[in-house]
Amino acid sequence: MSHEPQDALSRTALGVFRLNGQFLAVSEKLAEPAGLTAAWWQVLGAVLPEPLPVAGIARVMGITRQSVQRVADLLVREGLASYEPNPAHRRAKLLAPTEEGRAAVHRIDPGHAELAALLQRELGGPEAFEETVRVLERLSAALDGVERAGRDS
């Protein structure tokens, strides 16, 4: 097995791409009974703690503002979210979940909890699961640092 950084980067990227596909597939299955798609769940989940502008949701999730805007508009049309005035920016409205949107996300909770328990067992327990989370968060932070360094140079 090669320990060259370029090989490690390639294996990491391929692993993350595969994980992304796996998470999207399982998310679609979990969200479907609640009347949501994985993308709808993702955007609603981002605004459950507090309303956010579309650009803020995109930044937090690492996806394009345009994709979030399309999903946000659909959520509003379906009555799962609403646009609210943004005191910090007149034109960039805040997206907030409606009670119906919150209820839809909460209908996913039992399946979500079951998947979390299965993953924890498969990974070898709570400590191993937490370590997995820490490694992924470290990788994300490192990529943010590389991106910032690229912009600054």
From TrEMBL:
Any single GO BP term: response to stress
Matches recorded under InterPro entries: HTH_MarR-typ, MarR/SlyA-like, WH-like_DNA-bd_sf, WH_DNA-bd_sf
All copies of domain HTH marR-type, residue ranges: 6-141
Gene3D superfamilies given in the database record: Winged helix-like DNA-binding domain superfamily/Winged helix DNA-binding domain (1.10.10.10)
GO molecular function annotation: DNA-binding transcription factor activity
Highest taxon above the source species: Bacteria
PANTHER family reported in the protein's UniProt record: MARR FAMILY REGULATORY PROTEIN, TRANSCRIPTIONAL REGULATOR, MARR FAMILY
Protein name (record): MarR family transcriptional regulator
